[in-house]
Amino acid sequence: MSELRFDVVGAAGPKRYFEALAPEQLGHAYLFTGPSGVGKKTFARRLAQSLLCLAPKAGVVGYDGTCASCGLFRGENSRHPDFIEHEGTLKIGDPNARAGFYESEQFSARDLVHQLSMQSYSGGKRVLLLGDVAFATHEAANALLKFLEEPPRGVVMVLTTATPGRLLATIRSRAIEVRFPILSTAQVREVLGIMHYGDADAEAAAALSDGSVDRALAVLEGEEESL
User: What is the value of pTM for the model shown?
Assistant: First the structure.
């Protein structure tokens, strides 16, 4: 059996939760909650890579990084056909919101239903990540509810949000919530180091980050006054 990896800075608790699951115990929908910039989407991507990795493993968590499936996760522009990711802000009942699932992308409820109905490219699981979920049109919310009530076989959906209280209660109650804590200053500094920021810059930004990599990056880019 290959040596498997699964490292996300500051996510020891969520990792322990998934490590305790047998494959048959994996749910069809998870809601990752916690402040912005604490690794929710990074963890979701690593979880997707684990679920789609071709290396044999007894549990849910871990990927070898060398198989053909893992190769499709390498690089910023890489795309795995069984991993669908959309980021933005879902609009739930916002009368001033533009049509579509996301404000920044015209990803509609119809698109979601279509993608959920597609068969797995590899014959295994499919993973859908909807990042920064907070608001959605009623049409989109209904599409999500339909998935949560009648999940397609082999599909795992991960929703992430920093504002779970703004989600429809019917959506929140049907997904398994996994909470992510704020990061320590040392953990923010570690993430910035992984992103190749210099020691001095990483140290200064981490000290002002309030436990959020997003805030640290805003500091580094001179945008902290707008936060």
Answer: 0.86
